[in-house]
Design brief:
Strand order of the largest sheet: 5-4-3-6-7-8-9
CATH class: Alpha Beta
CATH superfamily: NAD(P)-binding Rossmann-like Domain
Strand content: 15-25%
Order of helices and strands: EEEHEHEHEHEHEHEHH
Number of helices: 8
Structural class: alpha/beta
CATH topology: Rossmann fold
Helix content: 25-40%
Radius of gyration: 23 Å
Largest sheet: 7 strands, parallel
Number of domains: 1
Shape: globular
Length: 304
């Protein structure tokens, strides 16, 4: 009669974290983190130039399927041609202030991207600057419609499908002006405060439904939006590629708010706690008290 043996315990597999370890017996192998970019369908508004264009380049380099929209059709066509060698990219006309135009653009983006949208980057923006009393009614209306209503519309149009899938990411390009307002940016800052607020509330409301929302807050950025201004040495502009790198990073590791440079958010938070005299002294010390009031030339309202 054969001796009885104790039952052997089978080794079970274990996975720890998004990037964990897979065990079978004594063999251990690393499990790769899920890629939030490669193969994903990513839509960018106002992307024929500046931040949007640099972001499209960075995402194509990571293997995303990118669809860009812009209301400047000639520049849009040139932009698509300029980055088509990097990967799968297409472009379509888009006016973010027109809900029908936005909806039609997203339908085309879905057709180009496999039937759905994984990521929406609300980047389109305008920046009227100068003395508040010199702002025209058209400049005020345009800023509100593009910077705020356009973001709100984009979110409303993509959220239903993301909630249904319990997956998706919306990135709203705001500004540090959405935390700290300076003279000469009254209209712009007002719209960006609104974008920061809606993004924060939206991030918390839709997190339980699997949808991530991020506000990206750049400081002065070297695009056409700051043409005609003369930033001081303390206000060295960041490059569009730096904003693009931050967007790639937040897609890899989502969070609800990031700033560029990275210390900007903390600086802005501290600044808001200063008394009036302290805030005005700091603005003057950094040149923020006049940079958007003393313009080198008459500025046109240009996109990012």
């Amino acid at each position: 009669m054969a001796p009885l043996r104790r039952p052997t315990r089978r080794h079970t597999t274990s996975l720890r974290g998004a990037e964990g370890w897979f065990r079978t017996g004594l063999d251990t192998c690393k499990v790769r983190r899920m890629d939030n970019i490669r193969g994903k369908s990513i839509v960018i508004t106002g992307a024929a130039r500046g931040i949007g264009y640099a972001t499209a380049q960075a995402l194509l380099a990571r293997g995303a399927r990118v669809v860009i929209g812009d209301r400047d059709l000639d520049v849009l066509e040139s932009a698509v041609a300029g980055i088509s060698s990097l990967g799968q990219v297409s472009g379509h006309p888009l006016d973010v202030t027109d809900k029908e135009s936005f909806a039609a653009f997203l339908d085309k983006a879905r057709a180009d991207g496999g039937g759905h949208i994984d990521v929406l980057i609300n980047n389109a923006g305008v920046m009227p600057v100068g003395p508040f009393l010199d702002q025209s009614a058209q400049a005020i209306r345009s800023s509100i419609e593009v910077n705020f209503y356009g973001v709100l519309t984009g979110c409303q149009l993509v959220l239903p499908e993301m909630v249904k899938r319990r997956s998706g990411h919306i990135i709203n390009i705001a500004s540090l002006a959405g935390m700290v307002a300076v003279p000469g940016q009254i209209i712009y800052a007002g719209t960006k405060f609104a974008v920061v607020g809606l993004s924060t509330a939206m991030a918390d409301e839709f997190a339980p439904q699997g949808v991530k929302v991020t506000a990206v807050l750049p400081t002065f950025t070297n695009t056409e939006l700051i043409s005609g201004t003369s930033p001081s040495a303390a206000q060295k502009p960041v490059e569009p590629s730096e904003i693009a790198a931050a967007i790639v990073k937040v897609l890899d590791k989502p969070k609800s708010r990031v700033s560029v440079p990275s210390w900007g958010k903390s600086f802005a938070a501290v600044t808001t706690l200063l008394p009036d005299r302290g805030r005005r002294w700091l603005n003057k010390k950094m040149g923020n008290d006049a940079v958007f009031l003393n313009l080198d030339a008459v500025l046109t309202q240009l996109g990012r």
